[in-house]
Design a protein that fits this description.
- The complex is a heterodimer of chains A (about 210) and B (about 270).
- In chain A, about 80% of the residues lie in helices and about 0% in strands.
- By secondary structure, chain A is mostly helical.
- Chain A has a domain at about 125-200.
- Chain B contains 10 helices and 6 strands; from the N terminus they run H-H-H-E-H-E-H-E-H-E-H-E-H-E-H-H.
- Chain B is elongated and about 80 Å long.
- The two termini of chain B are about 15 Å apart.
- The chains are: A mainly alpha (about 210), B alpha/beta (about 270).
- Chain B: Keywords: Membrane, Transmembrane, Transmembrane helix.
C-alpha cells in the first residue's frame, strides 16, 4: 500500500511540474515550493551527517590520532559565522583568504598541468601522417585552434589576414556551439523520456495493483 | 497565409506534439538499433580488457535531475563489471547522488549474486572534492575511514589489497557537473590514472578535447551513450528503451526547424515585395 501511495505522490508531483508547460498555475507553484523546501532540508541533514558529524565531531569526540589538527579548520569555520555580526564581520575575511589561497593554488596547478599543457601538446600534430584522413583531421584541428585563437585576439582591429582568420574562427566556434546545442536538445528530450517512462510504468503498476 | 499562421502557432501545441511523439514509442515498446561509436567502444574495451579481480572505481557525481541519462549508464557499466568478475568501489562527490548510486549498485549486485564487502563496496560521500581526490592518491583509507553504513574499511575484504590509485584498474566518472574536469586535471594528470567519463549530453561536446588529447580513454555521452553501452554488454535497459522516443523526437524537432525556417524566408520575401 505504501508503494502505491509513493507512486501517486511521485506521479502527482511530476504532472504538477509538467503543468507549467500549459502556463503558470498554483499546482505548479506548490510543487516548486515543496521541491525547494525538501532540497534545503536534505542539504541540511547531509551537511550535518557527512561534514560536521563525520569530519569534525566524531574524530574529536573519539580522540582519533591527528584529530587535534581539526581545531584549525574548525576555528576558521567558526570565524565565517562572524558575518552575522556587522561589527566583527571583517574577521571572516581570514577564512575567506584561506579558502581563496587554497583554491587559487589548486586551480593554477590543475589548470596548467592538467589542462593547458596536455591540450597544447595534443594540438602539436603532424600534418602528414601517411594516412590521408588522419592528416586531414590533424589539419582541421590545428587550423581550427589557430583561427579560433585569432578571433579572441583583440589587441588589433580584425582587418586583412587577421580579420579573415577571425571570421574562419567564428565558423569553428559556431560549429562547436551547434554540436553543443544538439547535445543539449538530446539531454532535455532524455529527461522528458525519463519522466514519461516513469509515468507510463507507474500507470501499469497501479493497474496491476488494483 | 498558412506561413503566417505557422509562425504564430501557440507553443503549447509544439509541447503537446513532442510529448505524444516521446510517449507513443514507450507505450508501444518500439525499438531502434543503435550504432556503436568509437568513444563508447573504447570505454567498453578498456573495462573488458581488465584482468579478473581488478578494481573499478565509479564516482557518482550526479543527482536525481540527471538520473534518466546517467543511471542507465551506471547499471550497464556495473553489469559489465560484475559479468567480468571485477571488483566495484562506488564513491560519491554529490551528496544527493548517494541514495541513487546505492540503489543502482544494490539492484545490479542482486542480479549477479554478488557479496557486499567482497565483490563490491559503497564508500559513500566525503566533502572536499579535489582535496579528497588528491588524498586518495596517497591512501584511500585516510579519507574514507568507513563505508556508507559506517563499517571500518579494514574489516571489509575487498579493501585488503587496495591502498590508492595504483590499485585501481580504471576510474569511471559519471558526471553532471565539473567533477569530471577535476578527475582529469588532478587524478589523471598527477597519478596517471586511466579515466572513463560518462556524462550528460549537455556536457558531452566539451569532453571531446580530453578524449582527443588522450586524457580520458573512453567517453559515454547522454542516453545514446548509455544505450550503446547496453548494446555492447548485451543486456537491454532503460537507455535502449528511450532511444526510439529520442529518435522520433529529434526527427520532429528537425521537421519543426525546417518548417520554421521556410516560413521565415517566405514571409521575408513577401515583406520585400511589398
Amino acid at each position: 500500500m505504501m508503494e502505491v501511495i509513493g507512486i501517486w505522490i511521485a506521479c502527482g508531483l511530476t504532472i504538477a511540474i509538467l503543468s507549467f508547460l500549459y502556463g503558470d498555475n498554483p499546482i505548479y507553484k506548490f510543487a516548486e515550493h515543496l521541491y525547494v523546501g525538501y532540497s534545503a532540508a536534505y542539504w541540511l541533514i547531509y551537511i550535518w551527517h557527512f561534514e560536521i558529524k563525520q569530519m569534525v565531531v566524531q574524530p574529536i569526540a573519539g580522540r582519533q590520532p591527528g584529530a587535534i589538527w581539526l581545531i584549525i579548520p574548525l576555528f576558521f569555520g567558526l570565524l565565517m559565522l562572524t558575518r552575522w555580526f556587522p561589527r566583527i564581520a571583517w574577521v571572516s575575511r581570514w577564512s575567506i583568504a584561506f579558502t581563496v589561497g587554497i583554491g587559487s593554488g589548486l586551480v593554477l596547478t590543475g589548470g596548467v598541468q592538467g589542462f593547458i599543457i596536455p591540450q597544447v601538446k595534443a594540438t602539436l600534430l603532424s600534418l602528414w601522417t601517411g594516412n590521408v584522413w588522419e592528416s586531414i583531421n590533424n589539419f582541421i584541428i590545428i587550423f581550427g585552434v589557430l583561427t579560433t585563437l585569432l578571433y579572441f585576439f583583440f589587441s588589433r582591429e580584425h582587418k586583412g589576414i587577421l580579420g579573415a582568420g577571425a571570421n574562419i574562427g567564428i565558423v569553428f566556434i559556431m560549429i562547436a556551439m551547434g554540436a553543443s546545442f544538439g547535445y543539449t536538445v538530446m539531454a532535455r528530450i532524455s529527461l522528458l523520456i525519463g519522466r514519461l517512462s516513469f509515468l507510463w510504468d507507474s500507470i501499469l503498476r497501479l493497474i496491476r495493483f488494483f | 497565409m498558412i506561413w503566417e499562421k505557422l509562425t504564430k502557432i501557440d507553443r503549447r501545441y509544439i509541447f503537446l506534439f513532442i510529448g505524444i511523439v516521446v510517449l507513443l514509442p514507450i507505450v508501444f515498446n518500439l525499438k531502434v538499433s543503435v550504432k556503436i561509436s568509437d568513444e563508447v567502444l573504447s570505454a567498453y574495451k578498456e573495462i573488458d580488457n581488465l584482468p579478473k579481480g581488478s578494481a573499478v572505481m565509479i564516482s557518482i557525481d550526479y543527482d536525481a535531475a540527471s538520473m534518466p541519462e546517467l543511471q542507465p549508464m551506471l547499471k550497464a557499466i556495473l553489469r559489465h563489471c560484475f559479468k567480468k568478475e571485477l571488483k566495484v568501489i562506488l564513491i560519491n562527490f554529490w551528496p544527493l547522488g548517494v541514495p541513487i548510486g546505492a540503489q543502482g549498485l544494490e539492484e545490479v549486485a542482486r542480479e549477479f549474486n554478488k557479496t557486499y564487502g567482497v565483490d563490491y563496496i559503497n564508500l559513500g560521500y566525503r566533502p572536499g572534492d579535489v582535496a579528497v581526490m588528491l588524498r586518495m592518491g596517497i591512501d584511500i583509507k585516510k579519507v574514507f575511514y568507513t563505508d556508507l553504513s559506517g563499517r571500518p574499511l579494514d574489516s571489509l575484504p575487498i579493501m585488503n589489497n587496495i591502498k590508492n590509485y595504483d590499485d585501481i584498474g580504471i576510474l569511471v566518472g559519471l558526471e553532471a557537473g565539473a567533477m569530471g574536469d577535476a578527475w582529469i586535471q588532478y587524478v589523471g594528470t598527477r597519478f596517471k590514472q586511466k579515466i572513463i567519463l560518462g556524462v550528460t549530453a549537455v556536457m558531452a561536446a566539451e569532453q571531446y578535447p580530453y578524449l582527443q588529447a588522450g586524457q580520458i580513454v573512453g567517453l559515454i555521452g547522454g542516453l545514446k551513450g548509455a544505450a550503446e553501452y547496453e548494446t555492447l554488454v548485451n543486456i537491454p535497459g532503460t537507455g535502449l528503451v528511450g532511444m526510439a522516443s529520442q529518435t522520433y523526437a529529434h526527427l520532429t524537432i528537425i521537421f519543426f526547424i525546417i518548417i520554421g525556417n521556410i516560413s521565415y524566408f517566405v514571409l521575408r520575401r513577401k515583406g520585400k515585395k511589398k
